[in-house]
């Protein structure tokens, strides 16, 4: 948290934050109030070319709302010290933002308090504040997007970890003995994984799918259609056998991650988020496979954990970033 002008920020029910969520493809932004209401939403292309561009995006958006907001709340990927603003890594922005201190970069440009938190942690904070995890003391969130975001609540508090890397479930291993990036579960359990697996199975150029992040470097034919997650789920709904086989395996991959979290953390509840969590086909298939995975646990008297979907989807990181701002500000 940084304070750039001597000013007391009194608690009231009308505080508004400029919230920004730096994703691999777009930066989502909006105004979020104390009741988690999001207005004036928009998005702009992700500034992944230079550090200067990254900072300029923040300052330009702030100039638009200068005098109308009490602070800036940022969600972004990476291993982040939310107390100091230091970015040990930065996900899709690592090349331009690694080992940078965001607060230092902004201190001459922004005159309201700024807070930053990892995107997965922001999502679970949103659910703990006003969502599906409100009042739950031990829980986990799995955010299914271009990667796998994660967040852990222990004893009613966000678990950050000794190195601020708790909940980085994208990096769990898929197969034993292989320790490279290509063997991370993000590659087989995220929406990116679903699209890549579908492209391979159907013999379609991966460049024709809306794939972001490190897997998105494929040539695209402008004369061919472009497909996204909604298209793939529609193929599943339509009963396309190739896509259905891929989807069923992908669901098993994702449940493996959720089941392992359940066994490791013994949470009361696990929630799944991301845009795909709004699709009833996905939710039904996920819960059915999870129930199958937990059946043996019940036979041996082992505890299970409730599986639910997040209340917040596309706005989760914006809302969680604001809750992080509030927690930091209260300190």
Strand content: 15-25%
| SSE pattern | EEEHEEEHEHEHEEEHHHHEHEH
> Strand order of the main beta sheet, please?
3-2-1-4-8
The poorly predicted ranges are 1-12
According to DSSP, the number of beta strands is: 13
Total count of helical runs of at least 4 residues: 10
Terminal-residue CA separation: 9 Å
Shape: globular
Could you describe the 3D structure shown?
The protein has 331 residues and is of the alpha/beta class. The protein contains ten helices and 13 strands. Strand 10 and strand 11 (157-158) form a beta hairpin. Helix 4 crosses helix 10 (316-330). The radius of gyration is 20 Å and the shape is globular. The chain starts with 15 loop residues before the first strand and ends with a helix. Mean pLDDT is 91; it is low at 1-12.
Keywords:
alpha/beta; globular; 5-stranded mixed β-sheet; 13 strands; disordered N terminus; 331 residues
Summarize the structure.
By secondary structure, the protein is an alpha/beta fold.
Fold topology:
Layout: E1 16-22, E2 26-33, E3 38-45, H1 51-65, E4 71-76, E5 80-81, E6 86-87, H2 94-97, E7 100-101, H3 102-106, E8 114-118, H4 119-130, E9 139-144, E10 148-154, E11 157-158, H5 186-189, H6 191-202, H7 229-237, H8 241-265, E12 269-273, H9 280-299, E13 306-309, H10 316-330
Parallel strand pairs: 1-4, 4-8, 9-12, 12-13
Antiparallel strand pairs: 1-2, 2-3, 5-6, 6-7, 9-10, 10-11
